[in-house]
Design goal:
With 122 residues, the protein is α/β, with parallel strands linked by helices. It has five helices and three strands.
Length: 122
């Protein structure tokens, strides 16, 4: 799966969906491809302003649903998250698959610059 930056809700919604065989029929037809690509990569990288302790249950639930995926959960301050991500993009370096931040202006600016993936929710 290519490194894409998506809004935090994609993690929340995505973590509540079962394995590819359990995808609800109301989900987009290509949703299984996203899951399979993630399995091939073997990890999901999350940059977040949320303390890992506060996200612990969500991370455990995701690990239970997708045991073949390792979650790299990186805590950053709201002042660090967007500049770090922009620097990685500028350097054409690996970056987070997902940003989860309380500072929506940074995420919106990245999305407006074309650094967001479309997420079709059922």
């Amino acid at each position: 799966m290519s490194r894409l930056i998506v809004i935090a809700m994609a993690l929340v919604v995505g973590s509540m969906v079962g394995a590819a065989a359990q995808i609800p029929s109301s989900y987009p037809a290509d949703y299984g491809k996203v899951i399979e690509a993630a399995k091939r990569e073997g990890k999901v990288v999350v940059y977040s302003t949320t303390d890992s302790a506060a996200a612990a249950q969500l991370l455990r639930d995701f690990a239970e649903l997708y045991p073949e995926l390792r979650v790299e959960y990186v805590e950053l301050s709201s002042g660090e998250l967007t500049p770090v991500t922009r620097a990685e993009i500028a350097a054409n370096a690996d970056s987070a698959d997902l940003l989860w931040a309380s500072s929506m202006d940074g995420q919106v600016s990245l999305a407006n610059a074309g650094h967001a993936a479309t997420y079709a929710s059922a």
